[in-house]
Amino acid sequence: MTVWMLWAMAIGGLLAAAAHVLESTLRAFGRPGRWAWVAAIVGALVIQAWSIVPWSKRTTVSTRSSLAAGEVAATEALLKVGEAGAAVGAFLERFDTWVLIAWVSVSTVLLIGLVGGLLRLHKRSTGWSVHSIDGADVLVSDDFGPALLGVRAPRIVLPEHVMAMDPRVIRVICAHEAEHRAAHDTWLLAAGAFLASVMPWNAALWWKVMRLRDAIEDRLRRARSELGCVPARVRRDPLGSRR
């Protein structure tokens, strides 16, 4: 299992590098870059799942048999590399039990913290006031936001200090938050946070999730910067996205 985890991180790292290049290309053509990171995350998950299903092992054995039947022998150098790799794998397998215990423990803590944060935030939101902006209801908090609250049916949340800004700025912020809602970005953020919590050992996955959050927020940050309405301080929502 330990060897598989290292292999999964290596595959994830390669896909992350490809996503970085693809994101730059998409942005150059004025397209949203978040889909590059979504593709990298999904692609890594598919490859990892394929590597552990029984039929993939049978395919490997079948291939080796066909090679043996065809009298295609590996070179001596490759055999030595294979033997060294097997020895390293056998050594790492000794830690599988402890690695599994640590994996389950850390994931449990992270998932409890994620769910607990969402529940606490929902409880806080019951005391927030509701304002109407251009016919749409917006929650006004003490210091949380601008953000979307919720996953299935997210609501726009603005902090009190934003409500004191120029009405044009407020409308732009609300419009961009509504744009995120229409694009179902809350689902992407929630899925990313869940996957990172389930696989806390996967450094490549964490990096891809963080880049996904940055890509999702890129257009909103640029719009705020152009209008001179960048918040004085950065806050984090329960899913870890910065606004």
Give an account of the 3D structure.
This protein has 243 residues and is α+β, with helices and mostly antiparallel strands. The chain has one domain. It has 9 helices and 4 strands, in the order αααααββββαααα. The protein has a 4-stranded mixed sheet with strand order 1-2-4-3, sandwiched between helices. The longest helix has 30 residues, at 96-125.
Brief summary:
By secondary structure, the chain is α+β, with helices and mostly antiparallel strands.
Q: Determine Rg (CA atoms, Å).
A: 23 Å
Shape: flat
Quote the beta fraction: 5-15%
Strand order of the largest sheet: 1-2-4-3
Number of domains: 1
What's the helix-strand series?
A: HHHHHEEEEHHHH
Topology:
Layout: H1 2-28, H2 34-52, H3 54-69, H4 76-92, H5 96-125, E1 129-133, E2 136-141, E3 147-149, E4 155-159, H6 160-163, H7 167-182, H8 185-198, H9 203-227
Parallel strand pairs: 2-4
Antiparallel strand pairs: 1-2, 3-4
